[in-house]
Structure formats: C-alpha cells, structure tokens
Design goal:
single chain, about 400 residues, alpha/beta, Alpha-Beta Plaits, 2 domains, 8-stranded mixed beta sheet, 4-stranded antiparallel beta sheet, 10 helices, 16 strands, about 25% strand
Length: about 400
C-alpha cells in the first residue's frame, strides 16, 4: 500500500499531471546553458511561490534553494537545471527554440520532477521532517554549479542528499541503483608544446612539435596503465589535437586536450603529479617546451550504502520488485559528487525509455524521453521521503 507522501503524490498527479508535462516541455523548448539559466530560474521561482513556498535565488543569479519545514536538520533533494551547447535534432512540438542549445541530458526532466515533488509536499500538510530543494545551475560546466551552491550554504543543516538522473538504457518504470561509485571522477588536461619551428626538409635544425604530440598521444595513456592499479579504472582519452597548417613546415606550437577519468577517489586527489611528470619525461628527448594545465574537474559519485537501501525500499514500496534494477558504473562525470564531499548521498537512475523507442544516449541531439517517466520520478521521490523518515534505518 502506498505510504502517506506517496499517496499524496498520487492525488497530486491525478490533478496536475498535465502541468508536470507542461513544465518539462516548456523547459525543453527553452534550454539555457550553465550560469545563464535566467528564464529557467524564473519558472522555478514562480512555480514554488505558487505552492505557497518561499524559494531563494542563488546569489550567482541562477539556481534556487527552497526549504520546506523549519529544520534544524534537512534531507536535500537536488535537480540540475542547465542544458548543453548542442543542436536539437528532434521533430517534436517542444523542440528547442534556441539554435545550438538542447536539453540532451534530461535536466529539464529532473527540474520538472522536483517541482512536482514540491507541489506534493506543499499539499501534504505537516511533514515528518524538513526538506531542502536544490535547483542547481551549471552541472555541465567546470567549475560546476554544485561548488557554487555548497559555497553559498546549500548544505547547511543538511544530513543527507538524494538525486535522480535520466537513464535512456533503462525502461520507464525502472529505477537503477548502485552502492559505491556510480560515476567516475573527471579531470581535464590541456597540454601546449612549443618550439622554434622550421622547414620539414631540415628537422634536425628545429624541435618537432608534431612528433612530440604523437608521442604524448600514444605513450601517456600506455604508461599510466603500467603505473596504476587497473582496479582504479583510469581512462585517459584525447579529444582534441591541433598543430600547424602547412605540409612542409614544422609548426611552432601544438596543443593536446583530453580527459582523465577514474573510479578511485583517493587516486583522483593525487594523480596530477604523476600525469605531469610522465608527460614531461615523454617529450624531454625531443627538446620541445611543454606547458600543462591539469583541471581536477569533479570527484566520483560514491553512493552511501545505507541511503541506497532506503532508495531500494522506496522503489519496492511504490512499484514492486520489477522496478528495482542494478545499474552499471559510468565513466561520465557528475558534479553531484561535490555534495558528497560534505554529506552522505545517493544518486539513482530513472528509466526514461519507452516501449520500442530508439536508443539515443545522453548528450546526443536526438535524446528524448517517454514522459510517463515524469510521474514515476515524482512517485519514487515521495516514497523515498516516506522511507527516509519512517523506515527502520535511522538516516544521517
């Protein structure tokens, strides 16, 4: 049988399901990239105020925090609100109206679900505890909006935090759960090599930037694989290389950009020195000058086991055993990890693939969802709060 908040969610959805879909389509057709989500922020503020709540805009100008209850202890629910700088290639009525910007990661879904949860909580009356809603900007940016939200006090008084993320590999009605690392840490590395340049007919009179770049491209990932325990799952992949413009001229400069991802958070904090040392050793025989910028990016999201247990019981209570799904670790980065540097938390994956729908991955311009997933997300989140407050395991 549904528990109290879940029952309130069913009642709310019975009246407001079209409003929930409307929010999602409005946000999807008006996507905004990180730290520019002004229209999105206004929509959130208007909706929350309409529920009789008192939302607060973050001082950076975008993003919203809203408390329901007086505390002093809060359980936090986080949704990210930004879009990606990608074209929307779908032929739907709610396709992006902004060229080159698209909600290709489902943040419009996360935002709409959390707005609906706010409506359910506001309608439910007295709650068993206090909730903080965090509508976070700039998840797709570095540095990301989670760091800004934490710096502004979004976690003050928070004991635990939860989040949902769309997963197009899971069918609608499924909730993907995992204890421990569910996403990887992600660092960015930018390398610039320089030399005097010269004629390709006389390479001995210059330093060959292109040759040095080639050595880095092939040797640095290989050497890392021999210096690090393979169980750390370190992956260095280059995404961009530039050098020169003429076939018969050795260029004076070249650049190399890539990402370093791993599942071991302890290694994430200490890998920079190894990467930079190896890069310098690789190019030293070539005589080029090297400049390295290593951005630590985001840590891994490591789900707390007790909180995943609460998620599991919530999914079972709301939907039954067929809803609970194991989910694979992802090498993608997710700045929800920054909250988990301060408080325990857990990220669940929300199935959004409809029956027979083509599989478009996150960050693809054709990404879309089956909108039945919206109500599933609302029901799961309210059942989660029921389990958190009323379950046998004490949170925090």
């Amino acid at each position: 049988m549904p528990s109290s908040l879940h029952a309130a969610a069913l009642d709310w959805l019975g009246v407001h399901s079209s409003e929930l879909v409307g929010w999602r389509r409005d946000l999807h057709s008006h996507p905004e990239i990180g730290y520019s989500e002004y229209r999105t922020t206004e929509l959130i503020l208007t909706a929350l105020s309409g529920f009789g709540l008192a939302p607060k805009r973050l001082s950076i100008g975008t993003g919203v925090v809203c408390d329901i209850g007086d505390g002093p202890d809060f359980v936090a629910l986080r949704a990210d609100i930004d879009a990606l700088p990608l074209p929307d290639n779908k032929t739907v009525s709610y396709a992006s109206q902004y060229p080159g910007v698209c909600h290709a990661c489902g943040h419009d879904v996360h935002t709409s679900i959390l707005l609906a949860v706010a409506g359910c909580l506001a309608q439910a009356g007295e709650l068993a505890g206090s909730v903080r809603l965090i509508f976070q900007p700039a998840e797709e940016r570095l540095p990301g909006g989670a760091e800004a939200a934490v710096a502004e006090g979004a976690l003050k008084g928070v004991t635990d935090i939860f989040a949902l993320h769309c997963d197009p590999k899971l069918d609608v009605g499924q909730i993907g759960l995992r204890i421990g690392p569910i996403t990887a840490s992600c660092n960015q590395i930018d390398i610039k090599l320089t030399g005097p340049g010269g004629h390709t007919a006389r390479p001995q009179l210059t330093t060959d930037v292109v040759y040095a770049l080639g050595k880095l491209i092939t040797e640095l990932p290989g050497l890392l694989s021999r210096r690090i325990d393979p169980r750390a799952a370190v992956s260095l992949v280059w995404g961009a290389v530039t050098a020169g413009s003429a076939a018969n001229a050795v260029p004076t400069a070249g650049t190399l950009r890539g990402t370093v991802r791993m599942l071991d958070d302890r290694l994430w904090k200490n890998l920079e020195s190894m990467v930079t040392e190896l890069a310098r050793q690789i190019v030293a025989p070539t005589g080029v000058d090297i400049e390295i910028n290593y951005d630590p990016g985001v840590p891994a999201v490591a789900n707390d086991g007790t909180l995943v247990g609460i998620q599991t019981r919530a999914a079972l209570a709301a939907f039954g055993p067929l809803a609970v799904s194991d989910t694979a670790q992802s090498m993608g980065g997710e700045d929800f990890a920054w909250y988990l540097q301060t408080v325990p938390g857990a990220l669940a994956r929300l199935g959004v693939r409809g029956p027979g729908a083509p599989l478009y991955d996150l960050h693809q311009s054709n990404f879309d969802i089956d909108e039945d997933a919206l109500a599933i997300g609302v029901r799961f989140t309210t059942a989660l709060l029921d389990e958190y407050w009323n379950g046998a395991v004490k949170p925090g």
